[in-house]
Amino acid sequence: MKRKVSFITFGCKMNQAESQAMAEKLSPHFDIVFEEKMGESDIYVLNTCAVTSEAERKVRQTIRRLKKLNENSKIIATGCYSISDPEELNKLGADVVLGNFEKKQIDRFLYEEGIYSDKHFWLHNEKYDILVPNEPYDNRTRVFLPIEEGCINSCTFCKIRFLRGLKIVSLPKEEVIKSIEKFIEKGYKEIVLTGTNLGYYGVDNSETLEELLNQIGKRFADKEIRIRITSLYPEIITDNLSAILNAYPIFERHVHLSIQHFSDKILETMNRKYNRKMIYTAIENLRKYDSKFSITCDLIVGFPGEDEKDLGIMFDSIEELKLLKVHSFRYSPREGTVAAKMKNQIPGNEKKARLSQMNKIADLSRENYLNGIIGSKVKVLTENRLKDVFFGYDEYYIPHNVQFHEKKIEKGQFFNTMISSLSKENKGVVSNVL
Question: In terms of CB atoms within 10 Å, which of 91, 299, 379, 420 comes out highest?
């Protein structure tokens, strides 16, 4: 009987892709499960996140719970938190601590004990591979394809660049194309391109993201697939990039923008490479070709020095731009960052109140966007079924409850639908199969 290994993944899509790739390395010799937290597995692999203090708290909580449920289970901690503070995870009960480099050879460390987390792996290794999975994470309908790793920005609030590496490593164009071909052959319909900072794709090998996307568009234009991009920075959304994303039907008419704030003062303090005008220009570029092009984004409230004027600018921008969704965060001081030492830190209760305000405005922005697309004909990729309703996403990354009766619908298929109304609590829409 094979021993059971459980993967528990925290944080980004990159982590999900890497968890799947690690699981594939171990699957010939172990039974693999995902998100199993009842203490029944022999080995737990925690792929951790350190983007916020809350993310780290969840990792600590999980280690304590697993140790309490089954003290004989082996815990392997890997990922960003494992580089940020490997000693703490080891003291909490992680038997083995691996960093973002060591996770790539997880099969070598299964029977080890102690800390093997190299905090400066990008300096010690001239070249290292991106961990690319062969299947979707946890048998889901979409597959994550990591194409870039590392970030060379110097944002004052972020320490992920140190944890993912201050060196850019890109998956060559021909390998990206081969991976997409492989996924299509296996029948997968949605492929999500992910990375630490996709804007830096190709910096290491004289390629560019625009060239890659244009080649993908030409190569797979006649395929019934959907290509989604996880996150881009506003300054790289040129008119040419926007034209490429809108020119080929395989690209999702949606982009997630890593915005963080709309106030020029706060953006400058964050050391971002763009201002409010550039954010608006990026979104105008995308919607010039398709007025329904949807935008989701990350926004932070409570950054040091943020005042009522800054909040007003952010709230007004959210409302004006009709954003599909805002991933909202309270500013979380990260040890070792410039922002953690700044004056005018905002008290926790005030940050909580500001977050509540922003979420209300974001909900209104979402409602305004969704109301504007009622009656539109879209193509939904179905995911889950509940009686006579299917759940899925369309090309604008809008969640659908698809009503169907006589027409046969299967999981993982595209269907043309018409949006009829907003769903409960304005989380998505209700549509009918055409």
Answer: 299
